[in-house]
Amino acid sequence: GAPVSHGALRIEELTFGYDPARPVLHGVEVDIPAGSFTGIVGHTGSGKSTLLSLLLRFYTAQQGRITVDGQPLEAVPDAAFRDAVGLVPQEAFLMAATVRENIAMGRPGITDEAVEAAARDARAHDFITALPQGYDTRLGEGGARVSSGQKQLLAMARALAGAPRILFLDEATSNVDSETEARIGAALAALHGRVTVIAIAHRLSTIRAADQILVLNHGRLQERGRHDEL
Ligand code: ATP
Ligand code: MG
């Protein structure tokens, strides 16, 4: 298999169940061009996170397939796949360490400039510089407190520090203030053309600028369109 060069995804007739006898995704069919922005919405249990898990290769579908840049997802070598994708999880995990160390996590050679560029892209730079010691402020146990939305912005900075071709975001469900929410949406929109973005959203403001929004209903793709078409 070849590395991921563009980050175009195709989901074809995808059917998957954690228990194969009970599918939670049924015949999902989606085209995700490289550099585009796709939002995913749907009620709780509709299969949003499951679809993300399949795109991240955590599971393999029983039927159908996913391709990236025209080749089967499973053909991409592990190291190349890790390099190509970034994940902003629903519940961001912060270490008891500085902001800088939290963003640089797992990337020992990364420069301070690259950390700051990732934080700017994640729209996290302003709140970081407002912290008592800026990028050197300690977080986590006994450290400065950040809101759950700010945690997610830091997780986005961490993901972007890896310069992914494809960025997945599972939006935090808990009380994200509207300013932070708008920042998340603006950060995702600004990646357009550079990074393929796939974002599960609980709030419309996050995916207002999406090229397409997928509406999942009981594991089926019920609707697909832009925000103003749905
Ligand atoms: P939410 O908005 O609550 O995050 P979701 O749309 O992300 O929901 P999924 O987590 O994908 O929904 O769940 C889809 C279905 O699969 C649900 O019926 C759920 O109970 C089931 N499910 C999710 N994860 C697992 C798992 N690890 N093992 C077994 N069943 C699971
Ligand atoms: Mg979910």
UniProtKB/TrEMBL annotation:
<feature type="domain" description="ABC transporter">
    <location>
        <begin position="9"/>
        <end position="230"/>
    </location>
</feature>
<protein>
    <submittedName>
        <fullName>ABC transporter ATP-binding protein</fullName>
    </submittedName>
</protein>
